[in-house]
Each structure stands twice: as C-alpha cells, then as structure tokens.
Amino acid sequence: MQYQDTDKQLVAILRGITPAEIVPMTEMLIQAGFCAIEVPLNSPDPFTSIEHAANCAKTHLGESALIGAGTVLSVDEVDKVKDCGGNLIVSPNMDEAVIKRARALDMTVLPGVMTPTEAFSALKAGASGLKFFPASLLGPSGISAVKAVLPKDVQLYAVGGVGPEDFAAYKKAGIYGFGLGSSLYKAGRSVAETKHAADASIKALVDCL
Q1: Environment class of residue 1 by beta-carbon count within 10 Å: exposed (0-12), middle (13-18) or buried (19+)?
Q2: Active site residue: 8, 21, 38, 147, which one?
Q3: 185 falls within a domain
Q4: Residue closest to 123 by CA, chosen among 157, 160, 94
Q5: Is residue 51 annotated as part of the catalytic site, yes or no?
Q6: pLDDT value at residue 63
Q7: pLDDT, tens digit, for every residue of 163-196?
Q8: Quick check: is 21 catalytic?
Q9: What is the pTM of this model?
Q10: Residue 2 in contact with residue 30, Cβ under 8 Å?
Q11: Mean pLDDT across the chain, nearest whole number?
C-alpha cells in the first residue's frame, strides 16, 4: 500500500549506510513509497552516498524526490550536499546561516527545533518546515501546544523516538510527517529487513490519513 509519490510525509534516515549499500536501498525505498531520503553526515563517506542516491532517485522519480543530508551543521556542508546533487538539508539544531544558505540554493531545509522561540527563528530565516527533535521528549501533547502558536500552513515533522505505532497520535497533534531512523534502518541492516520496516511504515501512515 502506497501513498502518492509526490508526498514527503516520511523521510528515511539512513544513518551509517555505505556507498556500496545506498543504491539498492534507495531503489527499495522508492518502490515501497518513500521519496525523501536523508543520509546523516556522520555516516561513512556520506557525500558519495548522497550522490548515488540522488542519481538513483532522479532515474525513478525525476525531480520530485528529496535526497540529501542529515546532521548538517555548517554552510560548507550545505554547499557540498548541493554539489553532489542533493536537494534536502536536515539539521538537529536551528542555525540561521545553514537555513539561509540552503534556501539561497533552492534546497528544502528542515531545522531541528524544540521551543516556540526556535521555531519562529527558523521560520524567519526561511525554513521549509520544522523538525521537532527529539520529538519523544515533547510527545504529541507538547507538540500540539507549540503548534497552536505557529502559522497553520507550516509542515511539522516528528523525529527521534517515533515509530509507526506512534503515527496516529502525532497526526492528531498536527504533525505532517516523520523522520524514521532506527525504527526503519540501522547500520548493516539488509535491504530485505529494511523493506519489512518500510512497508509497515507506509501502511501505518496510510491507516491514519
């Protein structure tokens, strides 16, 4: 069961993946229904993996996919992601310079926030959406409280300690999408194992739409 391939409600976080593993993993995730993939920069040779994933995604999805990096902490890293074909920047924190550089390069940028102050600062800098991280610390009730003061059209993602079993509760709180890390992929996990988790994630999302 899949949702429309233009939807970006699920971001696959492939922390620890290698360049040798990235293409078959990307192909499987696209087939499952994902079209947003993040390779954290503390993975082995992440820029090579991002380049391979971006080329693979363009073959299957054209320009509609979001492929890029997580744990982006500097402007130089934003430039490197752009140079290797990425169009997605995800950060654990709110860094104005990173956000502005990504937007200047016409990239989607999702900074990590926890408080209304960080959220409004990120939006003022031009963030494409907001990543509540770690979402499990706020929980659905905390996120709902912060969302009440934010612009209604802002896309909010829950990342960190959130799995398919939590989707419905976070959706009710106003979350648009989810970044899936260890619930989907851990370093060394096979394509077959990850496919099982990917299919379950897609089903859980569809069930609560």
Answers
A1: exposed
A2: 38
A3: yes
A4: 94
A5: no
A6: 84
A7: 999 999 999 999 999 999 999 999 999 999 999 9
A8: no
A9: 0.95
A10: no
A11: 95
Q: What is the CA 180 to chain-centroid distance, rounded?
A: 7
pLDDT score recorded for residue 169: 97
Among 82, 131, 147, 171, the one annotated catalytic: 131
Q: Is residue 100 part of a domain?
A: yes
Across the chain, the runs of DSSP E, i.e. the strands, are 10-13, 36-40, 66-70, 88-90, 108-110, 112-113, 130-132, 156-159, 177-180
Residue 37 tokens, joined? 């993939």
Phi-psi region of 32 (alpha: psi -120 to 50; beta: other; left: phi over 0): alpha
Residue 134: cis peptide before it, omega within 30 degrees of 0: yes
Percent of the chain with pLDDT over 70: 97
Residue 160, in any domain of the structure: yes
CATH of the domain at 132: 3.20.20.70
Question: 175: burial class by Cβ within 10 Å (0-12, 13-18, 19+)?
Answer: buried
Residues 132, 115: Cα–Cα separation, whole Å: 9
Indicate whether 1 belongs to any domain: no
User: 56 near 37, Cβ under 8 Å?
Assistant: no
Q: Which residues, in sequence order, are bridge partners of residue 88? A: 68, 108
Q: What domain count does the chain have?
A: 1
* Residue 171: domain span: 10-207
